[in-house]
Amino acid sequence: MDNNFSNYSDPQVFTRESVGARSGFVANVFAWMFGALIITAVLSYLFGSQESLVRLLYSETGMTPLGWIVTLAPIGLVLLMSFGFQKLSAGALMAVFMLYAALMGASLGFIFIAFELGTIFLAFIISAGMFALMAIAGYTTKMDLTRFGNILMMALVGVVIASVVNMFLGSQMMDTIICIVGVLVFTGLIAFDMQNIKKNAAYAMANPEAGRKMAIMSALSLYLNFINLFLMLLRLLSSRD
Fold it and tell me: What is the pTM (predicted TM-score) of this model?
């Protein structure tokens, strides 16, 4: 699920001279995000289409020890990046982020087994379009989205709790409601995170080491938003088949 890592600075540091620095910082954020998404996409396809790789994670009796590691390790890596932000170097954060993207790719290989390729492609296209639209909206709006961000984070907690409860209930209707709310939450968080990235850019570029670390953490936030939006849409589209 999403984590907001981008609120590290005072937006008052912006000046007209910082426009170029802002663009450079935002470009770095998207470079890291797209790089991570490419790694995830390639590995998810390989682990979903190559039987030898599938057997590394799943056996006839269930998930293998490696499968559990691949599934649970990303949670620990996100916590490591979040709580270790001050102590870890930019290079270390980058390495952890790329490892996280790789493990996510391996764990998401199941979608190529559970869903039709056309449904996966459609969910990806819709996710990409919604992400682009909300990223532009968040970057260009003059409205302060802080209040909405707080509401969205509370809604996200609700989605997580409802998802855990529904694991035991197995209600299709509840799952559909969770997915619809999830789509709304993650699209909103994209705009919220983009506004924070814009606010933080001048400070980040004025502090090179901190700026590199902030770019990676901001990329992680957008990456998580996109992945979760994609998965919610994929579940919604598959329920209509």
Answer: 0.87
Task: Report the sign of the C-alpha dihedral through residues 160, 183, 93, 73, in that order.
Answer: positive
Q: How many angstroms separate the CA atoms of 89 and 143, rounded?
A: 34
Question: What b/e sequence results for 27-38 when a residue is b if at least 16 CB atoms lie within 10 Å of its CB, and e otherwise?
Answer: ebbbebbebbbe
Cα-based distances in Å from 117 to 45, 76, 110, 227, 232: 10, 30, 12, 17, 16
* DSSP class of 12: G
Angle, in degrees to the nearest 10, between helices 19-49 and 90-107: 30
Identify the three-state secondary structure at position 62: strand
pLDDT (tens digit per residue) in 54-77? 888 888 777 888 889 998 999 999
pLDDT grade for 18, boundaries at 50, 70 and 90: low
